[in-house]
Amino acid sequence: MILPAAGRTGIDEALAHVAGEPAVWLRVAAVVDETGSWVARLVEVTSGEAPPAWERRMWQYPSACFLAAVDDGETLATWLQSGLPIGDRCIAVPALGDSVAWERRQSAGAGPLETLRWPSLETTLSASHSTFAEPGGHLVSSSTEAPSFVNYDAAARCFFNMHRQPAGGSLPQGVLYRHQDLRARLTAVRISADRVGVDVEGSDLRSVVVELAGDEPGRVENLWDRHRTGTDTATFPIQDHLPSGAWILLKSGGDWLDRRFLTQPWTRTTEVGVEVIVEPRTRLEAFVADRETDRVEFKRAVPSDDTGKAKVMKTVCAFANGSGGSLLFGIDDDQQLPGVPAQIVGRLRDQLTQVVGSWIEPRPRIDFEVLPIGEGESVVLELQVSPGRGLYGCARRGDTPVVYVRHLATTVRARPGEIEAIVRSRSPRDVSPPWRARDEASLTLAPRIPGTCQRR
Description:
alpha+beta
């Protein structure tokens, strides 16, 4: 199938692309509208490869149903125009538009639906304009094959595997089509002081070019003389640091196939399946150049008093409630590097570990990295906080924990809506920290979500 370029096409051309696929993977959420008819609220169609967590199943409830099935593209294209036969019902599909807009997404890139392993070309075939409310109350089925959920929102996020998506926001609606492009994708980017290594795999590498792009013209490496399918590696020499605005691009002709931006702090990445390894001094230079962000904060020294500890632990709590982050001890607010003495790093690491365990509940996952400053005896100590799976609170031992989040480069107390967004974005089994049971007043900050995401 020849893929359309990013841009607009007619609906007939879009349906032709769907119809030309030998297999398409379907996930549907349908509800009963105010007239008693069944209407599709969300239809996800994926071709090229099944979404990572897709599995054939059906959950039925009195006012909602969820279906995952696989069929050929031609059959599905017909159903999208006439209605979806699910069991003994015909599920009405929102009317398709006259034209659609296509957008390319990189592999492992976050979006409104489950993250895909391969780059994709995506479009909305129709948007739901219905104003009727989603089913209220718990979803409980008489079937043992359908798990129970506190509400429709929790069931839909579980069924479509959207628990790992960014917190907040409403569920997508309408008919969404995603074609995974299996020609080529980036699987790893390794950055060191003198080179960038890029691993690529795909089903057709004959016309693929790997480019280290940036604010100035970069270098390119062709793969077509080596392999048609399989894996390959491209290597780009650099001097001391990455060029300004650096990013890695896979392209074929005038289309980009996959990409990774490299100008953010490179110590870790939230993109699934991509490994970024940076030598300590290169990583330190990147942190200093990019200044403080929603995932990076500088501290001149490791605090010894409770006031200083409280400021640091609030930020640890905010990182755990968000996408993770790094606190760097030995960098002041002006990006100068006084550092901390290398000979006491072990003691400082033990001190910080103990303080995190005493102030944050539940305890988040943390790691440390020592970043040398030139050839001197001072270093920067990096405290790495992994993104959490639940809801985290911060307080001195014996006090009621408070939830914190990051607003750009500032740590603030979370508002009720922000707490709700964190809870909704994470697995129900992980959002009941132990301090809730100890202090009933905190229940208003962390609404209880019964039910779990079961796999059948």
